[in-house]
Each structure stands twice: as C-alpha cells, then as structure tokens.
Amino acid sequence: MNQDMAELKNELGSAIEKFDSICILTHKNPDGDGLPASLALQELIRSKGKKADVLLEYEAPPLYDFLAGRQRTKVYSGHFLYDLIIILDCHEIERIGKCAPLLHTAQKIIAIDHHPQRELIKEAYTFIDTKSVSVGTIIFEIFENEMDDLRPRSSKFIAEAIYTTILNDTNNFINANTDQKTFEIVAKLFRYDLVPGEIAEFFLMNKTPDYMRFLGEALSTIQTYQDDQILFLDVKLAMLKRNRLSNEDTSKITSWVKGTKKVKVIVCFQEIRQDRFRLSLRSNVIDVNKIATKYGGGGHQKASGCEIKGELKKIKRGILDDIYEQL
Questions:
Q1: Is residue 217 exposed (0-12), middle (13-18) or buried (19+ Cβ within 10 Å)?
Q2: Domains in the chain: how many in total?
Q3: Which of 88, 165, 118 is nearest to 297 (CA)?
Q4: Mean pLDDT throughout 230-242?
Q5: Around 252, how many Cα atoms within 13 Å sit in the side-chain half-sphere?
Q6: Do residues 263 and 190 both lie within one domain?
C-alpha cells in the first residue's frame, strides 16, 4: 500500500499514458462518492485524448442522471477485457462484485480509496488515504493543476461530480469528517462555475410524491432500544412496490433520522430479496465498520454497510448484541 500523493499521481499518469484499454470500477451498489468520482476520472482521461469505460454491475441509478450517469456508464458482461483497471472507493476484490473477473486479465491495476485498509488486491498498486473526505477529493488533488487547462464544459462537469462526492460523504457537511480542507476544496471548485444549490437539489432533494409516501411508511417502522440510544429502521420490498420505487431509491435514507434526539446508533435493514437484507449502519459513538466487517461488509468507522442472509428478527438480535458490546 502506498500513501504518497505525488507517487500516486505519477503512477496513475504513467499508466493512463501507456494503456489504451482502460476501465474504471467502483464497489457494488455504487454510491454518491464512488460513481461520481469514476465519472470525474473518466472525463479527465477523455481530456487526455484517451477513452475509459466506467463499468457497473447494473445500470446506473436515475439519481445520477444530472451527471449523465446512465449515458456515461456500461453494464458488465463477460465479454469485456481491459489492460488498465482503476478501482475507486474500494480496494478489496469481494466488494467489486460481478466485475471482479476483469482483474484476472488486466496488465495493470490501481486501487484508490479512503476506507480503512482491509484485504488488499495482491496485484494492485493501492493508495489509501483515510483522512480524505471522499475518494473524489483524492481525484481532484491528483489533477488539480490540470483543471484550468481543460475546456470549460469538462472542468465544470468534473467540479460538479467532485462536489457530489463531498455532499455524499459529509452528508451535506454535517458529518464529523467535514473539516477545513473540505471547504478549501469546495472553494477551489467554484473556479469552474460550480453552483452548489443546483447540485444539492439534484442529488439531495428532487424527491417524488411516491418517494415521500414511501419515506412515511419506512419511518413508521422505527424501533428504539436502550432508552432510545439505538434506532432501527426497516425498508420492505412491498413498500417500494406500492410506491413504484426500486432499491436504488433508498439511497441515504438514514439521513432522515440522523440527529434524532438521544440516538447514538442507527441501522437501516433494507430487504433486497427474500431473507436477504442490506444494512446501513451509522454512529458517532461506536465503530460500525467493525460490525459491518464481521458480516463481510465494510466502510468507515462512523458509516458502514453489509449484507446478511437470514430471518430478520434473528439478524436484528445479532446486530443488537454487536452494538451492546461497544455501546
């Protein structure tokens, strides 16, 4: 693992220059950091006269249409082959999901992340900076000196994508990871005609009446434990079906209960199919990454996730025990 930004810039720049067949990957169930950062890097590579595919397991969620997410990405199939693979917001094979076989035929792999180190990809040049607020800000720091030389349209797109990664990973600047450097980077993005209010409206607001009805149903499932210090929230497939939504529409649902009085730990249990649930864990008090890692997931100390197969009541009892161990 390497943590020298200058070395990373040289490694990445040399690889982009050397290889013509380039793929950008992020983790499965891409979020507002990994996918926008991938789109920003793709645009930067295009500005160098090269082509790069952003490859996903499934079609990009409509949430990212303001960044042309569906138009700028491809869906993985077994027919793709690339010489250079760049992995963003992830550094473990298991979190790449269906796209993992691409790594076996690549000549060069570079992984750039800001999550705590877990199992590294043996063949990859890996850069991890846990102090960076998002992987998008790492991409910006690498290419900052080149931004002024880009076409205005390209620099504006990149600035909007990077700002989205910051909004996502700071939860609109209210998470504890928001620091002076975060605002310094945002200030620099203003040079490229960034309009923060527009991005916030596209990414954080812009909800349909169907979504608000679904949200009401989800919030009605709230259960609390340990004198309201622990909050559990359920998302059922039936709720989504009733309101003509998909699993992708539940992104950042925990933000609606963040800051609830007395609550120290939040867990959302999202049903993704029968007897399988995706958990989103949030806390400023305990290490939720430790819990997520136990079940094959991962993330940050204060925000993490995993998937668990089983009966929901048993899963909740197990998660409660895990929380009690730390709380």
A1: middle
A2: 2
A3: 118
A4: 96
A5: 18
A6: no
